[in-house]
Amino acid sequence: MTSAEQDVHDGLDGNAIAGLLFDVFGGEMTTAMCECASCGARRPLAETEVYLRAPGTVVRCRSCRSVLMVFVGRQGTTSVDLSGLTRLDAAS
Amino acid sequence: MERTAVPGRLSWLAGDVVQLIDETAGAKSILLDLHGWPGHRAGQHVDVRLTAEDGYEAERSYSIASAPEDDNVVLTVERLENGEVSPYLVDELRPGDELELRGPIGGYFVWENALGGPLLLLAGGSGIVPLRAMLRHWVATESSVPVRLLYSARTLEDVIYHDELARLAAYDEVDIRFTLTRDAPEEWRGYRRRIDREILAEVAWPPAERPLVYICGPTAFVEVAATTLVQLGHDAARIKTERFGPTGG
Amino acid sequence: MAHISRGFTGRRDTSIDPARVPPGQYVTNDFPVLSAGPTPHRPLESWTFAISGAIDEPVSWSWNELQALPSETVTVDIHCVTKWSKLDTDWTGVSLDVLLEGVETSAEFIMAFSDGGYTTNLPLEDVTGGKAWIAYAYDGEPLAPEHGGPARLLVPHLYFWKSAKWVRGIALRAEDEPGFWEGYGYHNYGDPWKEQRYQGD
Question: CA-to-CA distance for C107 and B180, rounded, in angstroms?
């Protein structure tokens, strides 16, 4: 949740990339739990801060704003950088 | 995990536009006949893709406005001022046209009767769309889960599904309230401002009731609602949020 | 056969002279807002622009000091790697030539830094010689936060991700190092006329 001092951000949330996540991971991922490598916060991907078409898609930790994942699409291939996560657990 | 026709693949489907319904001056419902539609859960969305003759593409996500039990898949689209996709869907699309989409998408922002309640639904503007799918599912399953909806809109004319919501309010277990943020008729007795702590304290169940909460709308609306409910003592784990952009598409 | 949406053209302006449009771009009359993170809100009292790195002494300007420098208004075309181009945009700001005047360096590269953590790298020669500005007004109005205000870097001859929003300084560097998007696979240089969108293009 945002604190009073933080900027009210203008991003969306992980629901906005449900289709992209499905393409990349091969299944529904908005309920998958992720853990931020920067601050340790754990939340479902649906609750991350998402910046679309930025030109890539940037997914940030809602607690500390660090970058969790970056997706860059290029002619039918999507490259994914997950180095901002320490964990990503898909719901079973 | 979600099931689709081909495991691991979200395929594009072409649907036939069966009917268009003017919901408000700025919003239209699109009824679709989709071949190969696997069914959906209330709250899910689809990705719609438009392709121009020269190959130029634009893609946007739209919440499914219909319940899983309804005959047609319905999308309700609000025309955005400088949008690329919404003006086409609202102003140009005709019955008989084909619409390319894929889905259903999303497993987080979903409600079904088996999840129980009580159910607190908070809608900001076009955020009412997925919540209306949940309400239609509630009716179709003859649910006994108590439901409260708070719908924030600019004016009464901007309220989508007004008549349907009025009919829903007649159910004993359903409580529907509106807040109009820009302009209200003189005789209006509902709320007349953006949601705040006072409104939410009045509308929400006490935290001890542990409601399932679904908040959908512009980012700022969702932020205020979710933060305030947690401050009021509600369990963050029982609050599901879906943010629509300030500019959408 | 690919699906075609009857009657859909999008919001492109197709009346433009094609010679003004780099390959693969569409002209828009809107001004799309694209960002990799939340819009910072930097109070002008605490805003500074600094030049640091491979120079004897770092220099910096407060907002008032920047405003006092000679400025220009330029009309340029801008090209975003997401394929939209916007023609004849008016910007007011201070040329990097003015800011670098008197700065002696052997550095050949810069890294631009912004509030919010965004970075982008450029050759020093691509921000000198009348090619780059610290822009604080767009279309005659103070630059809006969502478009990079209070001030952004403006380097119109390259893809617009190089025109760092919310810029706070440049570091002069002997070695080139990738900035934010360059590190995620976008092209190190980014010439729209050679369609240098991604690494290897």
Answer: 59
The mean pLDDT of chain B is 94
Residue A84's domain comprises: 12-89
**CATH numeric code, B12-105:** 2.40.30.10
What does the DSSP assignment read for chain C?
A: -----TT---SB---S-GGGS-TT-EEBSS-----SSPPP---GGG-EEEEEESSSS-EEEEHHHHHHS--EEEEEEEE-TTSEEEEEEEEEEEEHHHHHTT------EEEEEETTS-EEEEEGGGSSSS--EEEEEETTEEPPGGGTTT-EEE-TTS-GGGS-TTEEEEEEESS----HHHHTTB-SS--GGGT--BTT-
Note whether C8 contacts B: Cβ–Cβ < 8 A: yes
d(CA C44, CA A43): 35
Q: Is B214 on the interface with A (CB under 8 A)?
A: no
Which fold does the domain B113-244 belong to in CATH? Rossmann fold (3.40.50)
pLDDT (tens, 9 = 90+) of chain A, 92 residues, equals 222 233 445 689 999 999 999 999 999 999 999 999 999 999 999 999 999 978 999 999 999 999 999 999 998 899 999 999 999 998 76
**In a domain? residue A40:** yes
**Interface touch A7/C39, C-beta < 8 Å:** yes
Pick from C126, C131, C196: nearest CA to C159? C196
Q: Which of residues 17-36 of C touch A (CB under 8 A)?
A: 34-36
User: B11 in contact with A at a CB cutoff of 8 Å?
Assistant: no
* Chain B: partners with 3+ C-beta pairs within 8 Å: A, C
Tell me if ipTM is over 0.90: yes
The structural domains of chain C, with segments of one domain joined by +, span 47-73+89-194
* CATH number of the structural domain C47-73+89-194: 3.90.420.10
First to last CA, chain C: 29
Cis peptide before B104 (omega within 30 of 0): yes
